[in-house]
C-alpha cells in the first residue's frame, strides 16, 4: 500500500514539519557545540599579528556564533515544531489504521456514517491541540478520509488482516529494528570517540604539567569531550535503543498472534496492537511534557 496515497492529507504536512523541525534542531545544536569547541581552541594558544591576537579573534567569533545559535533555538524553537508535528503524524497514522481495518474505536459493525464522523472528530481534535502548525505543501488538500482507507475498510476481513500485517505491523517492526541497531552503533562509536578525547586531554595535561608544551590541550580536548557527551545525551541514543528494541520484540509477538485472531475479536486486537506500536511514542511525548 502506498504511503503517499493512504493517510489523511494533513499527515503529510505534519510529517514534513516534523522532519524539518528535527533537522533544524539537530543542525543548530551541532553548530552551537562546534562553535564552543572552536572557542576553546581560540583560548588555548596565542598567535599575534601586530596588535591582534588571531586566536583571540577566533574565540570571539566562535562565541558570537554560539550566542546567535542559542538565541535561534530559544526564539524559533524548532524542537517544539518537531515534537508537536511528530505527535500529530503518529496520532493521525494510528487513527487511519484503526479506521481502515475496523479496529476500535471504529469497529466494522459501526455504521459507515458514524465511523466517518467519529474519525473526523478525532482528527479535528488532533489538529486543534497543536500550537505550531506546519505549512501545507503545494499539492495538499483537506481530505481527511482517503479512498484507499475507505476501500480497505470495505474489504473482506482476511484482506484487511493481511494488509494490517504487511503494511502496518511488519513495516513498523522493521523500522524499530533498524533504528535501534543504528542508534546502538552511533552510541558505541560516539562514546568511543569521547573516551579517546578524554585520554588525549589527559595526555595534554601531562605535557603541559611537565613543561613539554605551552598549549592548553587539556582545555581543547576537554571541551571536545564535553560537547560530544552533551550531543550523545541530547540524542538519547542509549534510551531510544532500549525503547525501540522493546517495541520491536513486542511487535514480533503481535505478528505471531495475528493470524489466529477471529473477526469478532479483531477490533480489540487492533486496539491492543496499536497501543504496542505507539507506546514508545507515548513515552517520548511524556519526556517532552506533552499529554
Radius of gyration: 25 Å
Helix-residue proportion: over 70%
Distance between the termini: 31 Å
Report the average pLDDT across residues.
86
Number of helices: 10
Main structural class? mainly alpha
Regarding quaternary structure, what we see is: single chain
- Low-pLDDT runs: none
Shape summary? elongated
| Sheet having the most strands | 2 strands, antiparallel
Q: Secondary-structure element sequence?
A: HHEEHHHHHHHH
Please tally the β strands and state the result.
2
Trace the largest sheet across and list its strands. Answer: 1-2
Instruction: Tell me the strand percentage band.
Output: under 5%
Structure description:
Helix content is 78%, strand content 1%. It has helices at 3-6, 9-44, 54-75, 78-101, 112-128, 147-153, 157-209, 217-235, 237-258, 266-287; strands at 48-49, 52-53. The chain has a two-stranded antiparallel sheet with strand order 1-2. Helix 2 (9-44) packs antiparallel against helix 3 (54-75) and helix 2 (9-44) runs antiparallel to helix 4. The two termini are 31 Å apart. It is an all-alpha fold and 291 residues long. The protein has one domain.
Characterize this entry briefly.
The protein has 291 residues and is mostly helical.
Question: Tags for this entry?
Answer:
291 residues; mainly alpha; two-stranded antiparallel ribbon; 10 helices; 78% helix
Topology overview:
Layout: H1 3-6, H2 9-44, E1 48-49, E2 52-53, H3 54-75, H4 78-101, H5 112-128, H6 147-153, H7 157-209, H8 217-235, H9 237-258, H10 266-287
Antiparallel strand pairs: 1-2
Amino acid at each position: 500500500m502506498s504511503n503517499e496515497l493512504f493517510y489523511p492529507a494533513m499527515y503529510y504536512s505534519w510529517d514534513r514539519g516534523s522532519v524539518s523541525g528535527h533537522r533544524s534542531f539537530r543542525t543548530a545544536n551541532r553548530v552551537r557545540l562546534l562553535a564552543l569547541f572552536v572557542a576553546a581552541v581560540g583560548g588555548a594558544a596565542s598567535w599575534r599579528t601586530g596588535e591582534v591576537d588571531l586566536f583571540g579573534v577566533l574565540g570571539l567569533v566562535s562565541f558570537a556564533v554560539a550566542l546567535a545559535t542559542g538565541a535561534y533555538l530559544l526564539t524559533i524553537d524548532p524542537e517544539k515544531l518537531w515534537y508537536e508535528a511528530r505527535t500529530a503524524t503518529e496520532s493521525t497514522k494510528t487513527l487511519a489504521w484503526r479506521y481502515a481495518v475496523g479496529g476500535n474505536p471504529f469497529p466494522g459493525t459501526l455504521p459507515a456514517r458514524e465511523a466517518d464522523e467519529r474519525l473526523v472528530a478525532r482528527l479535528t481534535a488532533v489538529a486543534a491541540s497543536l500550537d505550531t502548525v506546519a505549512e501545507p505543501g503545494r499539492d495538499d488538500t483537506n481530505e481527511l478520509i482517503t479512498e484507499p482507507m475507505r476501500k480497505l475498510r470495505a474489504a473482506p476481513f482476511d484482506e484487511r488482516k493481511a494488509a494490517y500485517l504487511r503494511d502496518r505491523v511488519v513495516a513498523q517492526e522493521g523500522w524499530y529494528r533498524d533504528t535501534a541497531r543504528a542508534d546502538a552503533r552511533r552510541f558505541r562509536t560516539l562514546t568511543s570517540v569521547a573516551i579517546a578525547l578524554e585520554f588525549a586531554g589527559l595526555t595534554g595535561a601531562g605535557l603541559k604539567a611537565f613543561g613539554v608544551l605551552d598549549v592548553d590541550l587539556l582545555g581543547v580536548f576537554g571541551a571536545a569531550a564535553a560537547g560530544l557527551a552533551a550531543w550523545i545525551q541530547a540524542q538519547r541514543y542509549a534510551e531510544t535503543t532500549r525503547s525501540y528494541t522493546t517495541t520491536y520484540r513486542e511487535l514480533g509477538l503481535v505478528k505471531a498472534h495475528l493470524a489466529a485472531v477471529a473477526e469478532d475479536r479483531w477490533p480489540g486486537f487492533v486496539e491492543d496492537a496499536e497501543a504496542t506500536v505507539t507506546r514508545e511514542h507515548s513515552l517520548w511525548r511524556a519526556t517532552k511534557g506533552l499529554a
